[in-house]
Amino acid sequence: MNGAMTAHLVFDPLVPWPLLWALGGVTLLMLALALWRGLPGWFLRGLGLAALLAALAGPGLQSEDRQNLSDIVIVLVDDSASQSLGARADQTRRALTRVEAQVAALDNTELRVKHITDGADNTGTLAMTAMSAALAEEPRARVAAVILISDGRVHDLEMRPDLPAPFHLLLTGEAADWDRRLVVQNAPAFAIIGEEFKLKLRVEDQGLVPPDVPQFADLTIAVDADAPQTYSVPVGEDLELPVVLPHGGLNVLQFAIDPTPGELTERNNTAVVQINGVRDRLRVLLVSGEPHAGERVWRNLLKSDASVDLVHFTILRPPEKQDGVPVDELSLIAFPTRELFIEKIDEFDLIIFDRYRMRGILPMSYIDNVVRYIREGGTVLVASGPEFGAVDSLYRSPLAEVLPVAPTAQVIEGGFRPKITELGQRHPVTEGLDRFAPEGENGEPGWGRWFRVMEVEKLSGQTVMEGPDGAPLLVLDRVGEGRIAVLTSDHAWLWGRGYEGGGPQLELLRRLAHWMLKEPDLEEEALTATAKGNELTITRRTVSEDPPGPLIVTAQDSAEEGEAANPVILDMIRVAPGKYQVVWQAPEAGLYRLEQGDLTRVIGVGPASPREFVETIASGDAVVAPKVSGAAAYGSVTRLEPGLPDLRQVAEGRPVTGRGWIGITPREAWMTNEVRLAVLLPGWAWLVLTAGLAIAAWLIEGRRGAKR
After folding, report:
1. Is the pLDDT confidence value at 577 over 70?
2. Domain-located, residue 77
3. 408 with 423, same domain?
4. Does one domain contain both 395 and 383?
5. Could you tell me the CATH number of the domain that includes residue 430?
6. What integer is the mean pLDDT of 472-483?
7. Taking the model in full, what pTM does it have?
8. Where does 301-430 show beta strands of DSSP type E?
9. pLDDT above 90 covers what percent of the chain?
10. In what order do the strands lie in the sheet with 472-479?
11. Are 182 and 203 in contact (CB under 8 A)?
């Protein structure tokens, strides 16, 4: 860095500049008057007044000791994943070496190199953000050029900064590159179970596609990685794929196209879509046998859920009630038994018999149809009361074939606190209900008491709650494809009324209803997983007392490698009764299959096709701003495939690119080390000069006057 000394005239006026300009105007008027009167000393008078004005302006000589600063060239090197394709990594390495050597050969020029990696959370190449950070670290007045070595696939163009110098993109890749990719154009986060929706796909080619490449691709589709199906589809056309989700919860749909020889990469030949299956409108049939204090418990619960369509009938006038009122004068709605229990029974997701007794309203053939409905996947809940042990109990009907309990005709009366069984501590319907109440006596939940329970003999199923002396209170069972539950007390409403502090009535009945509706989150045996980045949290729920076996994690076949990875065996840790968990770091993004016993789950970690591989053909059209690409004075896009460009210094305003070269603009920046200020003349010298000129003018005018 060379130094230099400069000097220039500065002014520090003793009076404000407007006053000084006014005095200058008065001086000019006085000189004009002297000329008009023919005074011979007008010239000296003018010089004297000018000296006076100069003294008032305070002239001084300012000298600066300046140090010239070097120019800075910023080089951004794209090391993202897409730069690993083809020969791009080698092109990048050679281009950086060439730029480093040429900058080192330039006088008074420094180099700053910044490397750019993949952005976090699949945000791609953040080159503009890196450029802004690099510019913020350097004085803008010294930046002579910014050079980006990249394939041009930048994903934060909206962050493009204003550049103080030329910008050059050294473009990697080859002009003959081409690639085939699979694009999912619309994928909903939720879809209704059993209803068809359209998923739009597209297989498209990019780049310079050889003419002999077939314009059809084999598309493989798999749901939860089971039973894949393959179709031949055209390239370059939008495809509408009808999809029906088979189950509730997370459904993983995997789409893949077979690799084509010669394409740039196979990483974008696969797409994974994760869609949550939900029910549209849950249809529930509630049949109340007679009015009672807890009748509205189920109605209020189900009506509070906007997704439930409830049909509720209460039998107010049984056949044995003879009151002499003509039927045509009753304002009651006739019970549409045939329509509900024969014609439309399969449309209901849940049937609840609330203290119902057989009074001849429902023929036995209708109950037989209810049994068939359960075995084929329907769900029934029996909320019983004292009538359950009577002669007209539902147990005296064909429903006894599927009921998990048999009544003894005894009713146990007296206060008791419902208790969760050891099995219930592990069952999703009752697990953790203790959290909803303060601790009572002997460590039991401090819930309010119930006062009646029907004595029953357990035949099958799972007892998750019990009453006094271990009497079954809530029994759940599976029959064929369906489910059935029996609540042997009609006093759940006491919790809802807050009696003795109440209890988790709403949470218990909500869970019970949703378990019967086969919600995936309430399955007794379930294997679930959630992904955060590449970290998988895998949870196993079981009602068995024995710990589950080893968990086998297998990466699905990699589209790039073409072969399956070795399975990983994990041991799960018990975190709560009936709940085991393990946290595992997946080695890379992709699709993973979880297996434990007869349970299987497929989970996607990160995107199947990362953002770096969505578009892979090198292009600089979007990176360089339109004003840059249209004017050589601002910057350029230079392909590295033909050869490495030379680096030249060009004057500001001149073209900065040409055949085989790119230019940088020297900034000639400098830094001031020392400033010295010296007055031009001291005040007394100005006074002597002004007085001398005035006396000289007086003498000249006096002599000429004497001669006259």
Report:
1. yes
2. yes
3. yes
4. yes
5. 3.40.50.880
6. 93
7. 0.66
8. 308-314, 350-354, 379-383, 405-416, 419-420
9. 34
10. 308-314, 282-288, 350-354, 379-383, 482-487, 472-479, 462-466, 419-420
11. yes
The domain in which residue 559 lies consists of 522-605
pLDDT at position 563 over 50 = no
Burial per residue of 509-546, b for 16 or more beta-carbon CB atoms within 10 angstroms, e otherwise: bbbbbbbbbbbeebbbbbbbbebeeeebebbbbbbeee
Q: Taking CA 237 as the corner, what is the angle to CA 233 and CA 242, rounded to the nearest 5 degrees? A: 65
Specify the residue for token string 């359960």.
374
Indicate whether 464 and 359 sit together in one domain. Answer: yes
Give the CATH number for residue 537. 2.60.40.10
Supply the pLDDT for residue 372.
94
Q: How confident is the model at residue 445 (pLDDT cuts 50, 70, 90)?
A: low
Side-chain-side CA neighbours of residue 37 (13 Å): 10
Pull the structure tokens for residue 676: 């010295």
- Asked whether residue 111 falls in the same domain as residue 140, the answer is yes
User: How confident is the model over 620-653, as pLDDT tens digits?
Assistant: 887 875 544 433 347 789 999 999 999 999 988 8
Structural domains of the chain, count: 5
- If you search the block for the tokens 């007296």, which residue do you land on? 414
Q: Are residues 421 and 469 in the same domain?
A: yes
Both 487 and 346 in one domain: the answer is yes
Q: Tokens for 518, please give them.
A: 């086969």
Other C-beta atoms lying within 10 Å of the C-beta of residue 101: 10
